[in-house]
């Protein structure tokens, strides 16, 4: 009989890992603090994930009808900076729909899902995996997301940058567009709730975009925000196996955050199966997972960290405008 794997956090990493483990005969209990379906702060633009990764996790069909996006335009302030075509299409589907599909598939496979369940960290406990997203930190960033409709865009992904952050707009299902931004926290902004989105855009020099978004139809309940987090590797908790955003958060401009969530689950999968089947101890499994996570993600995290400040520096505009796309993508994929 296999040992049970307990997963804390029912986002992309936790759900896809739970599904893959169950498809391999492992008993899984998953605890999610919220409920399904729900909106999350996420660009909903999956760039760089392979079909092989999705099939390894057993979730390819949940993304079968995702939009395929290739064209990108980048604006600095309200001025067009560059236009590009991605070498491979990205997938676009809302987290509201994708998470719901994944949790239903997990339940059908026999995953024991507990919603409204917020477990505490339990470092050193064998068989426990932490995928509950960003860890508490005194970070400088705020993330804002909403679904809007009735807005025209110049490409499949429209990126808008400024001195304090950036925002991307991309179509998802049912005519909705995801509008998701990352900004440095500005305590002089007094707007509240959904008004924060346009307030940060105005402060960032994206006045034309702010007017377009304010005039659009907003999907009820879709506005979400997270604040006070840091990018890059997250604070390490000794003895705790952390995956997905709990392990590292790559800057959103890369379009690689959702991909890394799936790849984290894929990386951990064989080692967790070996532990559950008794062929590897928990410390051995955790050590192997951490080693492979570092090997798989270190280059792109370091590259993204170096490139990220350039998005806000006026002197870097020529570089942003003329830098070749494929070498940049190779650094952050």
Briefly characterize the structure:
33% of the residues lie in helices and 26% in strands. The chain has helices at residues 12-23, 51-57, 95-108, 195-203, 207-215, 257-276, 282-307, 317-322, 325-331; strands at residues 5-8, 28-32, 45-46, 67-76, 79-92, 112-115, 128-130, 141-149, 157-162, 165-171, 177-184, 217-218, 224-229, 232-233, 241-242, 248-249. The two termini are 38 Å apart.
Characterization of the model:
By secondary structure, the protein is of the alpha/beta class. It has a single domain (5-137, 230-331), classed as FAD/NAD(P)-binding domain. 33% of the residues lie in helices and 26% in strands. The chain has nine helices and 16 strands. The strands form three sheets. Strands 3, 4, 5, 8, 9, 10, 11, 12 and 13 form a nine-stranded mixed β-sheet that branches. A five-stranded parallel β-sheet has the order 6-2-1-7-15, with helices on one face. A hairpin with a 2-residue loop joins strand 4 and strand 5. Helix 1 (12-23) packs parallel to helix 6. The radius of gyration is 20 Å and the shape is globular.
Oligomeric category: single chain
Largest sheet features: 9 strands, mixed
Helix content: 25-40%
End-to-end distance, in Å? 38 Å
Number of strands: 16
The CATH architecture comes to 3-Layer(bba) Sandwich
Q: Which CATH class is shown? A: Alpha Beta
Radius of gyration over C-alpha positions, nearest whole angstrom: 20 Å
Strand percentage lies at 25-35%
Provide a count of the helices: 9
Give the ordered list of helices and strands.
Answer: EHEEHEEHEEEEEEHHEEEEEHHHH
Number of domains: 1
Q: Could you name the ranges where pLDDT drops below 50 across 5 or more consecutive residues?
A: none
- The average pLDDT value, as a whole number, equals 94
CATH superfamily, by name, is FAD/NAD(P)-binding domain
- What would you call the shape? globular
What CATH calls the topology is FAD/NAD(P)-binding domain
Briefly note the structural class of the backbone. Answer: alpha/beta
